[in-house]
Amino acid sequence: MVHLYNLHPFGSQQVVPCKLEPERFCGGGRDALFVAAGCKVEAFAVSGHELCRPRGAFSTLGRVLRMAYSEAGDYLVTIEEKNKATFLRAYVNWRSKRTENSRVCIRMVGHQVEAPSGAAFGDQMSIVEMPLSEAPLCISCCPVKGDLLVGCSNKLVLFSLKYQVISEELSILDFERSLIIHIDNITPVEISFCVGYVAVMSDLEVLILKLESRPKNGKAVNHHPRKTSDPRRPAQGTRDETSQLESDDFVICQKPMELLGEKSEQSGVSITLESTGLADEKVEYSHVHHLLYRRFTPDISFCVLSDDIKLHSLQLLPIYQTGSPTSSGKNLSQERELLSLFCFFSLPHMGYLYMVVKSVELMSVYQYPETSQQAVLTPQFLHVITSNNLQCFTVRCSAAVAREEDPYMDTTLKACPPVSMDVCALRIQLFIGLKAICHFKNHIILLTQADPEVIPERRDSSRRLLSRKDTSVKIRMPSVAEAGWNLYIVNTISPVQLYKEMVEYSDIYKTVKTQSCIHLLSEAHLLLRAALMDAQQLEPGERAELMEAFKESCGHLGDCYSRLDTQHSHLALPYYKMSDLSLTEVLARVDWAVDHESQKYERGLIFYINHSLYENLDEELSEELAARVAQLFHAAEPKQLPHVLCSPSMKHTDPSLALSYLRSLDTCGLSSILVTLTKAAMALKLGDLDMHRKEMQSHSEMKLVCGFILEPRLLIQQKKGQLVPTEFAVHLKEAQPGLLVASVLGLQKNSKIGIEEADSFFKMLCGHGEDKIPQLLLDFWEAQLVACLPDVVLQELFFKLTLQYIWRLSQRQPPDTPPLRSAEDLINTCSHYGLIYPWVHILISSDFLLDKNYMEDLSKLQSLMCGPSFDIASIVPFLDSLSEDTVAGLSVHVLCRTLLKEYEQCIDTLLERCPEAVIPYANHQLKEESRIASVVENAVASTLSENQVWWREVSALPVSTERNTVGCCCGAGAEGFPERSPRGRHCSVFLALSSLLQQKEVTDLKVSFEQCHSSIETNCKHSSQGILCSVCVTEAFETFLYHAVVTSLIYIHIHSVVQNENCQDVRILQRSAMFLKVDAECCSKEQRPLRALEDMTVFSIPGTLQGNSKCVRCHS
To answer: Among residues 139, 215, 877, 933, which one has the fewest Cβ atoms lying within 10 Å of its Cβ?
Structure first.
C-alpha cells in the first residue's frame, strides 16, 4: 500500500543551456553535469542555486550510447559507436580540458608511459582506450573504489582502477583488466557494481552476486576460461523441447521465481571467474557468492504491447558509515567505509527495493499509478518518471541502516520507524514528455520532449524477448527532425524545509486518523535520518540545523505515541529520550483537563512518566506537576502510586495529598508493606512521629526489609550521579540502625545497590569523609560476612575489617555508635569468625585495665584471625601500628606469627612476656605431643644454658626411693612461687611448665619448696640476726628450681606417653624417675655445708616403684 500526500519536495528549476538534443547525460560528482549529443560531450558547472553554465567540451570518437561517471578517480567512461563498431573509452583529467580544441592524449589501457612524455599528462586530458573482444553493452563504476565493470553479451569484464607512477611528482590514472565473469543463460541489459557486489539485469531477470577474496560456498577462480555445468541447470533436452514448442502462435513464459541466499545458485545461471592478471599477483576476487535471483513473468493485461514489459533502472545504492573521516585528494572515496547496500529495479508498474549486505531481504514494493519509464534511487527518495509525471516516493534505507549501525535501536533508549512501514508518495509533479532522469547531490536532471511519440530503446519481438533467445540490444536512432526538447535541473528543497511541511501536513490527522499522523511524522523522521547519514555533504551549520529538527521530530513522535491509542504506545519513551526534552517539558505538552475525574490517560504517557520517574533524573517537578502526576497514577495505575511517590522527582509532592491517596489504596484492598512504608515516609515529612511509629510497628522487621527491597528509593536516592540518603534513612540511623543495616544488606543481596555504593551511602549517612569509617559501616561489613553474600570478595572484606580493628586498637578510638553485634555474637553466627585460641585468653587475662569497647574490637580481630578463611599475609604490613608493649598488641603479633608458623619465635616471646601461656600454646598449636615436649625441652635448655654445671650435677644425682612431705607454710600462690622466689629466668621456666602438671604434682613441688626454705632459716649463721644469707638463699633456690624443672619434664613425658597408650614406655619412665637430693654449701666464711638439705628428700613421682610397679593408666 502506498500513501499519497500532496507535499512539495521539489524547489526551483532551470534549463541546461545545451545546443543539441541530449542523447545521454549523467551527473559529474558534486558540481558537474555531462551531456552527450552528437559526437561531443559538454560539461556544465552546477553549484547550489546558481545558474547552470558551460564548463568545457570535448569530442568523442562516435555517438555516445552509454555514459557513466566515477567520483573515485574523477573520470568519465563512455560506450561509443562509429561505423557500426562500439568502443569503450575513459576520459581522465577532464577538468583540464578548458576548450574544445585543447590538446588531448590518447593511450591504450595498461600502456606504460615514459617519464618524458608523461610529464604533459598532468596538464591535459587523457583518453584511455579499452579494447574488448565483444561489443560492450552496459557499464557501471564502483562508487567506492572507482573500478569499472563492463557488460558484454555473455560475460562481464572488470577493470581495476590504479595509478601509474611516472615520477616522484606525477602519477596518472590507469586501468587494469583483472577479472572476467562468464555468465551463461543471461545477457546483461543493465549492470551495477559496488565494492565486490555485482547486479546483472536482463529484460525479465535480476541476478545479484558477491565477489570475494576467500571462498564462501562459491566457485573458485580460473586463470583460463572454462564452462561449468551446474547439475541444477535445466537439461539441454528440455531447452530443445522448448524451442520446438515455440512458434509464431505461442509465447513460452517461464514461471516467476525468487531465490535468496544460497538457494539462488539453483537459478540455472552458470558463473565462472577468469583472472586476467599476472599469475603471481594477488587475486582480489577469487570466488563468487550468489545472493539473489529473481525472474518475472509479465502480466500482459497491464500493457498493450509486450515490448513495454521489461525491467529497468537497476541500481546499487551504498550507504557509508555515519561521520566517517575523510581527507582531500584522489583517494577520498577509498577511505569511506561501506555500512549497508541496497538494490533497486523496477517493472513498468512496480518497483522493488532489496537490502543485500548482511542478509538479503525485500524491504519495499512500490506500486506506480502509471506506467514508469525510468527511476533513480537516493538515500532519501525514489524518483520515478512516467510519460507526463515526476513522482517522488519515500524509501526505508535510513531505517535499515539505523538498525545496522546502532545496537541500541528499538530499546527504551532509542527507536526508529520500522522498515516494513508502508511507503508513501510525497508528490506527483506534472511534466510533459518526460524521457529520462538522473540524479546527483540534491539535483534531479530531467529530459523532456514535446513530441508524444515514444521511440523504444530496445525493440524485439515479444516471442524472442520472453524466450531469451535473441537478447541483443539495439540503441534507438533519434530523428533529426525531432524538436521541442528541454533538459531541466530540478533542485530538491532542503530536508529541514520539507520536514516542516510534513509536520504541518500531519496536523490534520492528529484527531482524525491516528495511524496516518504517526505514518507521516515517521516519514519526516526518516527523511532527517537519511540527511544526517551523509555527513560528508553537510556543512557544520546544516548539520546543527538537521540535529535540531531531528530532536524536534522525535518529540512529535513521542507526542503521538503518548496521546494516541496505538499498540506501540511504549515507543513514547525512546522518542522522548531522543528529543532531549525534560520531564517537565513533556508534562507541559500534555493537555490536562480541568475535570480530573473525566480525563482519560493513554498508556503511552503513563508508561513514559512511570519509566522516567524510575530513573535517577536530576529533575524535581514543581508542586503543581507533582500533584498532577500523583493524581494521574491514582486514577490510572494505583499499584504504581507508592513507587511514583518515592521518586526523587516527586520531592515537592504535598505529603497530606499523598497520604490521602495512599489511604484510599487501603480501602481498595491494595494495602501492602510498600504502602505502609510509603505512608511512614510521608508521615516523617509531615513531622508526625506517632503516625510514623504506628506504621512501622504494624509489620515485623523482616517484612519491613522486604518492603525496602521492593522500593530502594525509600532509603537511597541518586542525585547528580551520587547516592544520597533519604530523610527516612536518617531517621532509621537513630531509631532503628539494625533495620537500616539489614535493609541495605537486602538491597545488596538483590543487586539493588553495589558494594562501593553501599559503603559511600553509610559514610554520607553518618557524615564521615572518605577516610573515616563509621561504626554503622563496620556493622554493615560484619553483616556481609554473616550473610555470606556470593558477590562479596571475602579477602577484601577481611582486609577492610581488620584494618579498621587495628586502627581503632592502635588509636584507642571508641566507636561513634554502639556496635550492633558483639564478638561472641559473631563467633556464634558467622563461620568466618573462629573460636579464639585458649592460650590467647591466658595471654590477655593479666591485663584488667582494658575497657569494654577496646576488648570487643580486640576479640573481633582475634576471632577473625582465628577463622578458617583469613589470609594473614594481607595485614602483616599494617601490624606495625599496633605496639607489642601492650597485652593486646602482643596477642595480635604472636597470633600473626603463629599463623605464619613461626612457633619457636612465639615460644621465646611467651617465655619472656607470659610464661604461663607457653604450654597451652604448644599444646594447641603443635598437635603432635612428642613435638610439644621437644619444643619445651629446647626452650628450657636454652634458658639453662648459662649454667651448664648445675644442669650436669642435677642430672648425675642418685635416685631415691624415699618420699618425705612437709606441710607448706610459705604462702606461695597456686600459680607458682610469686611472693618469695627469686623472679628470674629460671622461675619463669618453672611457671611455664607447671601449667601442665596435675594439682597433686604441683602440691608436691610446693612442699619441697617449703622444706628448702625452712632449712635455710635453720642453718644459715645469719638467721640469728633475723637476716637470711643472700648467697645461701640464692644457691638453695637455684638448686631447687633446676630439679623442679627436670621433674616437671618427667611428668610431661609420662603424660605424653600415657596419652599415646604405650604402657611399656610408662614403666620405663617410672623406673628411671629421679628422686633428687641436693647438697648446697653455705657461703659463710667457714664454708660449712648446709646439712639440713641432706635430709631434704624432694619430689617423688606418683606411681613410682614401691616393690612392683604398675602402669598408671591401665594398672597392668
So the answer is: 877
